[in-house]
Amino acid sequence: MAQKINEAHEHLAKAEKYLKTSFMKWKPDYDSAASEYAKAAVAFKNARQLEQARDAYLQEAEAHTSYRSLFHAAKAFEQAGMMLKDMQRLPEAVQYIEKASVMYVENGTPDTAAMALDRAGKLIEPLDLAKAAHLYQQAAGVFENEERLRQAVELIGKASRLLVRQQKFDEAAESLQKEKNMYKEIENYPTCFKKTIAQVLVHLHRGDYVAAEKCVRESYSIPGFSGSEDCVAMEQLLQGYDDQDEELVSRVCTSPLLRYMDNDYAKLAISLKVPGGGKKKPAAAAAGDSGAEPPKEEEDEYAGGLC
């Protein structure tokens, strides 16, 4: 280990020499300095001196930036982030990866930027769901700008699930609509059906029956939806919810169709409560009455005759 540390310091000393100027050397040799900083970082990393490895990677990034080698600078920032990850300093690690993603975009390599943001999302997800969702949305936006919808929609799906997990149902509803629109655009219709189910569950948890019904109604235009098991299940669910029929709602929500959805949506189904505590509406209400008792017949004061 001591040998690796000494080796690292030797590389740092060489890097400093490359950066010095003199009467005969007017400009610093940033390229050579960056190479030595990278070697120092690897030596520190092998010696498990992670703090010093991070510093060396940051110095490498600075040297690359000085001569506008943005791609390599971004890579060095990512490596600095990985050192912080190994030190369990995840928020700081994510900051460096975000900085790297900006550089990748500036360099004209947006795909690499999006993949970096996806990695950052995975890193921070166990610690901060809101931050992870934001990173997935950013990554999706980069792919979307490149018209790579298949990659974009996968990342939006990750964000949707995390928003549901946080019970941010308004944001989740928007995210799911965006997902569904993208799946329609790439003609993945069966997945559109599943997104309709997720939308209905989210809207009902928001207490917005009208929005849930609208989602199903709009989905009739998707090829194959009308008459599908997904469509029938949602029609039954909405009917049961509107009629306050707890038994019907429970039967739909515990069916294999909903039980085997992504875990976050399956939990929404299981936890769905019907309004009114599951007490069915009176028969008159089901026929369109407001629920009030039928009016009593007025007594006929002449019922016994005139005399």
TrEMBL record:
Residues 296-307 have a biased composition (Acidic residues). It is found in: Golgi apparatus; Membrane. Residues 283-293 have a biased composition (Low complexity). It holds the Pfam family SNAP. GO terms for molecular function: soluble NSF attachment protein activity; syntaxin binding. The keyword Lipoprotein does not apply. It is a peripheral membrane protein. SUPFAM superfamilies: TPR-like (SSF48452). GO terms for cellular component: Golgi apparatus; SNARE complex; vacuolar membrane. InterPro entries: NSF_attach, TPR-like_helical_dom_sf. One of its GO terms (biological process) is vesicle-mediated transport. Keywords: ER-Golgi transport, Golgi apparatus, Membrane, Protein transport, Transport. Residues 275-307 are annotated as: Disordered. Required for vesicular transport between the endoplasmic reticulum and the Golgi apparatus. Belongs to the SNAP family. Interacts with RAB11FIP5. Interacts with VTI1A. This is Gamma-soluble NSF attachment protein. The gene is napga.
